[in-house]
Amino acid sequence: MRSLSSSEIRSRFLGYFARRGHTVVPSSSLVPQNDPTLLFTNAGMVQFKDVFLGNARLPFQRATTAQKCMRAGGKHNDLENVGRTPRHHTFFEMLGNFSFGDYFKADAIRFAWEFLTRELELDPDRLWVTIYREDDEAEQLWRSVAGVPAERIVRLGEKDNFWAMGDTGPCGPCSEIIYDRGEGHRCDAPVCGVGACDCDRWLEIWNLVFMQYERDEAGALHPLPKPSIDTGMGLERIASVLQEVDSNFDTDLFHPVIRRIEELSGRRYDRGSAGFPFRVIADHARACAFLIADGVLPSNEGRGYVLRRILRRAARFGRVLGLERPFLAEVAGTVVAVMGEAYPELREREGFVREVIRREEERFLQTLEQGMRTFAELAERARAEGRPELRGEEAFLLYDTYGFPLDLMQDMAEEAGLAVDLAGFQAALERQRERARADRAARGLRAGDALAQLVADLPATRFLGYEGTEGRGRVLAVIAAGEEPELVEEAEEGSEVRVVLDQTPFYAEGGGQVGDTGWLLSGEARVRVTDTQEVGRGVHLHFGRVEAGTLRAGAELEARVDAERRRAIMRNHSATHLLHKALKEILGEEATQAGSLVAPDRLRFDFTHEGPLDEETLRRVEDRVNERILDGLPATVQVLPLEEARKTGAIALFGEKYGERVRVVGMGDYSRELCGGTHVHNTAEIGSFKIVSESSIGAGLRRIEAVTGTGVVAYARLQERRLRETAELLRAPEEEVPARVAALGEELRGAQRRIRELEEKLVRIAAERLLERVETVAGVRVVRGELEGAGPEELRQASDWLRQRLGSGVVLLAARSDGKVQFVAAVTADLVARGVHAGRIVGAAARVAGGGGGGRPDLAQAGGRRPELLETALAAGVDALREMAG
Predict the structure, then answer these.
(1) What is the pLDDT of residues 525-538, one digit of tens each?
(2) Which of 376, 493, 608, 719 is 20 to 30 A off residue 596, Cα-Cα?
(3) Rounded to whole angstroms, how far apart are CA atoms 694 and 707?
(4) Angle at CA 50, nearest 5°, toward 48 and 56?
């Protein structure tokens, strides 16, 4: 057996299959394209899913990859096991070879056996295989092709050895290659063997899927005309075998990362349970680096939430190791050093990856302190009320407000002797999701599903719009619009329709560019097109209304795009390319497009960057774009093979799925991007460019909105009108407006300051009057009452002042505001020592007023929904004090 580094294993694998006619395909993004069923790419076959389903074709029939994979969140989720076992990870690499209707079982088995036993020199006597219980062919091939004896071939059931893409579709038996790590790793089960136990002696290293059937809706299996092969071998696992270590975390993929954690924490790594935090951090740092490099950013939903959860989990375990300050960006830097050669995107975006991690960790550490205080108050309230658990709504508050992952809450609750109401938490979470789903449904985001089914059998539409804005086409389908759209032979005047042509000059929305509008004309029929969308496999749908005559399927017609609107869109689209390049020049290469909208009246460009752009930077970006417009750069278009296009320096957007041949749009020698949109012929046609706003749209994401050409003129006129109207209101010349506004602002701030001082004085006077009515309850001096007009801050200040004046005693204050009532209780230190608790006092008052709350023993705040019960509530608070002091 050869001892090889992980880089050598990866290289040898790809080289072995390349020499056997396989095309080496780069790893796809961790964000699957056009597959809403998956949160992340979790296997090598994901990028070839459309090929296996027959929806796409490739110019080759054999492929091999080293694929980035994630299993965290959704159906495939290994998060909770990470660090507890030697093998589970969130991020991992899958080595795979694929046959799309070319070779089948015999060659798949031969390739796998030959690579393991000859290329890697594994001992054949230590390799076992499992097969599907009914796959006699596989057993015969393992014995004849690989020479595996019958006693080392184990038949297992459908759960273990039958693979399916879904409930219906391609499926087939699979065969796993198992490595026997030896007697020293056996378990204590009566029978320690493949299929009989799940111990660490028997290590699955490679899975061969024989995709030979299609399962119909009735569950019946039908042989595929061209069976295919899909295999996957975890790099981390095979590295542990070849490097002769007991755990994936001891391989060269993890060892440098763990060593960096040791340096930062000043603690030594322990391979036992004490090393659990090291393993979690090392795994999660890899996941964070790769996810961010692939364009995923921390957020509160979807992929972004999984990233946030992983990052914050790693940060929490950093605290276990004594790391109180942000440290994960440093660990991620080591990940880049280890993995950057194999995955260049890590090196290209290292600065951005580090910055996103640093800011998210800082943000979490801030909310962690605030959330810990809130948790302490909630836990204290639960104990005071005799509850054994945090309510679901309380746990959701920590999740939604402070970003606490559920596992963090459970750990903290356990330490406090409490549990978490998981059902209540899930119910609160589901209510939030239901609101989000209702919002999405209201915006019609699922409207295209039925239409896609109706046009599924139609050929892709040929696009004529690069050559001009007019053309002729034949009507392939007329669809009557409605809640349940349907194919019709004809549509009369007044009908809302969706029209499919064999060819069209109308651009279908895509790449951020909105769809074209215009007219479809056939004899007396006239259809006003209000939008153009692409559905299914390249079918253009013209959304419109029949305004005259009758539109019939099969008719030949003339398609006319609104040319002036198209020209405005082209100006804005070409300007986004210039803007993208200018941002990269001025902010750095990490400023990468994250989304865009190209409309006739404006452009919107989203990009990755931490922190706002100041006025000077925005001016430089705007000037740079206008300089390139004035240069009159010619726009060029080339159609090239994807790899050749990348070698020319053309920008390919993260997460985009490209075909083998791509369209490269250039603006002189300044900008080159892969783009399918429509553009000006020369940058001078853009006219001019003006940024109208810059804002944040999420952690690490910025948005610039801008106008071009006549839009700049319209924007300038709008600003002139606003300035003129403001000057008239101020009765001042236009040039004096800024000074007059500044003076008015200072006057306003002065007036507000005087109002606050008067309000504070009134509250102090009211508090002094309350001090004159001190009462004694169970031997404790008490000040209670209402402070009219006081807000929460005034209540706290007044309670502090009264507590100091009392020397020893309890203060219980209330104030009405906006149909609600606020309570504050303050207790002096000597009474806290005797067991008097402000949180319980204020909680008793709030419950009477239809609310709740609590806090620390010395100071607590609560609220209620029934201000009319204020006096009764104060009395209840005093009763609670009497029970404590009595």
Answers:
(1) 999 999 999 987 78
(2) 719
(3) 13
(4) 105
Kind plus residue range of the DSSP H or E element containing 694: strand 689-698
829: nearest Cα among 847, 845, 809:
809
By the 8 A CB rule, do 108 and 231 touch? yes
What is the enclosing helix (H) or strand (E) of 497? strand 496-501
* Residue 84, token pair as written in the block: 């507890």
Cα–Cα distance between 501 and 555 in angstroms, integer? 10
β-pairing, 551-552 vs 503-504, is: unpaired
| Average pLDDT rounded to a whole number, residues 286-314 | 89
Residue corresponding to tokens 């417009």: 629
Strand pairing partners for 548? 526
Token pair 């009108």 is found at 721
DSSP 831-881: HHHTT--HHHHHHHHHHHTT-EEEE-SSEEEEEES-GGGHHHHHHHHHHHH
Closest CA to 492 of 518, 525, 532: 525
Gap between the Cα atoms of 781 and 112, Å rounded: 84
Residues with Cβ within 8 Å of residue 129, at least 6 apart in sequence: 142, 148, 152, 153, 154, 175, 176, 177, 178
Name the CA dihedral angle for 557, 563, 565, 570, rounded to a multiple of 10 degrees. Answer: 110
Note whether 767 and 799 are within 8 A (CB).
Answer: no
Adjacent-strand bridge partners of 674 = 664
Please, what is the average pLDDT of the chain?
89
Neighbours of 641 (CB within 10 A): 13
Whole-angstrom distance, CA of residue 521 vs CA of residue 559: 6
Pairing relation of β-strands 810-817 and 780-786?
A: parallel
Q: Which two tokens stand for residue 107?
A: 């060659």
Going by C-alpha positions, the residue among 483, 538, 546 that lies closest to residue 520 is: 546
Question: Quick one: residue 142, left, alpha or beta (phi over 0 = left, psi -120 to 50 = alpha)?
Answer: alpha
Question: Alpha carbon of 51 to those of 55, 104, 226, 449, 583: distances in Å?
Answer: 6, 16, 12, 21, 37
Q: Distance (Å, rounded) from C-alpha 354 to C-alpha 331?
A: 9
Predicted TM-score (pTM) of the model is 0.64
Q: Which single residue is written with the structure tokens 């790769």?
A: 290
H or E element that contains 826: strand 820-827
How does pLDDT run across 727-784, given as a tens digit for each residue?
999 999 999 999 999 999 999 999 989 988 887 788 788 888 888 889 999 999 999 9
